[in-house]
Specification:
With 440 residues, the protein is an alpha/beta fold. 38% of the residues lie in helices and 24% in strands.
Length: 440
């Protein structure tokens, strides 16, 4: 059978990985797919770089629309990234009846509803395994492997840069700014790391997983997003003393009131497997009603790990290329006419528990006032840690840290109580609040 022909848009780090892995493992991939898969055209503005990668094995062009318009191209791989030209080219490829494989989580999280609707109408596939957690097959697991389950919640370390930074802060006792510079030096963080350290990248991925898990439209604009820039090494140390580690988690959960969709630093018990995922690795925990807890772990970025996911999509599309569109796995796991309009909860309505650190005057009655405010709001204390004043400011210090772990409470209620505690004359600095999840 004639090999299926593929056009590649963008041959940077991931694109070159896709080309090289596909070429290296061509025989094995053909055995799995049932026919050959060949990248016959590559579009990149840097044609010299592209030609250096592909040699005589593919035709290199500068204009991506040459690939989209070529009737011999069956599948277009979009690895340009971003919301702009990538969106335009993807929609044009769909309009030309091309299947699309992409790693563009930002584009799908923001414009996925439009893109999937266009693909459904045209009868083509948009495959995006590489958009979440790199080489970990989490999309396929959610969409196919766990089909029998009612998914209850997902919690994931889905950004390697922030996990590397938090791991280094914990292991070496360093401040955030110091570790960020080291992450940039090592290539884990971009020159402009905003999307990573502010939680935006993780929120894109959490949005996609939430849509697949619960059968709702992608709704990035409704996600709560908080990064790690305000985390202090002292909070990482206190969390450790209390039996927790701090991870930046993407969390989505089904509740009676609606769906939670949030990204923020989170205290996780040290005994949980996900709490022990270190460095730039990714991990996703999925709770299903039938299967229970499942964990997916691996490299979330990099040339060949991400290429692994892209090529897996190529194989899937190749297998389904001639299958009637109505019998393919839906883009968001649920049939298009069964997508729900279930509410995404505002963060103020989310119920979780908390770590609070208060810098307070070292004098009698401080804890009683704080406890009274919590009790009045119906918030119970799970654990408490109070440091000696000398450990905070040296001998003769008149300040100390009061650390509290609370039981579950609505976020809006906690916001009100924190404002009340902040107004106490004995609370000497802004209160640090970090959410806590048992993930049991």
């Amino acid at each position: 059978m004639k090999p299926i022909q593929v056009g590649l848009l963008g041959i940077g780090t991931v694109g070159s990985g896709v080309f090289n892995v596909l070429k290296r493992n061509q025989a094995e991939i053909k055995r799995r797919a049932g026919r050959g898969i060949e990248i016959t055209m590559v579009a990149d503005l840097d044609t010299a770089r592209a030609e250096a990668v592909v040699g005589a094995n593919a035709r290199v062009v500068k204009d991506a629309r040459e690939i989209i318009a070529n009737p011999d191209i069956d599948i277009v791989i979009e690895l340009i990234g971003g919301y702009g030209i990538a969106r335009t080219l993807m929609m044009e490829a769909i309009a030309h009846g091309k299947h699309v494989v992409t790693a563009n989580k930002a584009l799908l999280a923001v414009h996925g509803t439009e893109i999937f609707a266009a693909a459904h109408a045209k009868g083509v596939i948009v495959a995006f395994e590489a958009a979440v957690a790199g080489g970990i097959p989490i999309i396929k697991s959610l969409r196919e492997g766990l089909t029998a389950n009612r998914i209850e919640w997902i919690a994931g370390i889905i950004n390697g840069t922030t996990n590397f930074i938090l791991s280094e802060m914990r292991e070496k006792g360093l401040d955030f700014d110091v570790v960020l510079k080291e992450a940039q030096r090592l290539g884990y963080a971009e020159a402009d790391p905003t999307f990573d350290i502010e939680g935006v990248d993780a929120a894109h991925k959490a949005t996609i997983m939430s849509a697949i898990a619960f059968g709702v439209p992608v709704q990035f604009d409704k996600a709560y997003v908080e990064g790690i820039t305000k985390l202090s090494k002292v909070d990482i140390e206190y969390a450790e003393q209390l039996g927790y580690r701090i991870k930046l988690l993407g969390i989505t959960r089904r509740t009676d009131k609606g769906i939670e969709l949030r990204v923020h630093p989170t205290l996780v018990p040290c005994k949980r497997l996900i709490a022990n995922v270190e460095g730039a690795m990714n991990a996703v925990v999925v709770q299903g009603d039938a299967v229970g807890t499942t964990l997916y772990y691996g490299k979330g970025a990099g040339s060949e790990p991400t290429a692994s996911a892209v090529i897996a999509d190529l194989v899937d599309v190749t297998r389904l290329h001639t299958v009637d569109a109505a019998h393919r796995v839906p883009h968001l796991a649920f049939q298009a006419d069964q997508i729900s309009d279930e509410t995404i909860l505002p963060m103020s309505e989310v119920v979780t528990s908390y770590y609070l650190r208060l810098r307070v005057a070292d004098q009698a009655g401080v804890l009683a006032k704080v406890a009274s405010l919590l009790a009045h709001a119906g918030i119970s204390i799970d654990a408490m840690l109070q440091r000696e004043a000398s450990a905070i400011g040296g001998q003769g210090s008149t300040q100390t840290d009061l650390i509290l772990l609370t039981h579950s409470v609505r976020e809006g209620t906690m916001n009100e109580v924190i404002a009340q505690m902040q107004g106490l004359a004995t609370v000497l600095a802004p209160i640090t609040r970090i959410r806590k999840e048992e993930l049991a």
